[in-house]
Amino acid sequence: MEISIKDILRILRKNLVFIIIFSLILTIGSFFVSKFLIKKTYTASVKMYVSTDYSGSNSAYDLNMRNYASKMVSTYIQMLDTNKFYTAVSSALNEKYTAGQLKNSITFTSVEDTEVFEVSVVSDSPTEAKRIADAVADTAPGTITELLSTQSGDSAKLKIVDEATVPTAPTSPNVTRNVVIAFIAGIVISFLISIARDYFDIKIKFDEDMTTLCELPVLAAIPDFTYFANNVKSGSASSKK
To answer: What is the pTM of this model?
Structure first.
């Protein structure tokens, strides 16, 4: 099946009302589902910094220490992404959440090639998201110190760069994004439906259809006598008045 630009324009013109209505219905439906039915979640984040004892007096040494701290970020993340750490955070929160629940709601992300990494906490309550993030910030340095206590000479420490705040807006669902996606999907789906209907519709309704489908000129056409008769009757009635 080959579709030319002319066919596309014809199908669009023929099904424009259907495409608009279908897209609007899908868009409005997406808005209500995203706004009122999908459960909202909030994200609180805290940033941590792997600190070393470089002093700025020896540039070569300081550069090595910075590189060391940057490499330690991934190591620290692996140390914190453990059941031991999540259990410690659970204890700090009076065991309101299990270690498994905390693991599912906490995400560690390194910030490019720096000594900083971010801890994001997702919860259905903005205050709980901050509370968990604060517990992570309080527990993480001690956990790292405990795990590294057997390694003598380790000069890296974990510090808090940016404390968590109470999120003011939900991070999910993204209503605007969902509405835009639904609108675009509505246009695409309705257009595909229109193409399918046009392809399987073999009826010839207008003279132009014969020219378009068969690429043959129309030499003659049988008039619609019913339409002609109705017009004659209406004309006669008008003349009598």
So the answer is: 0.70
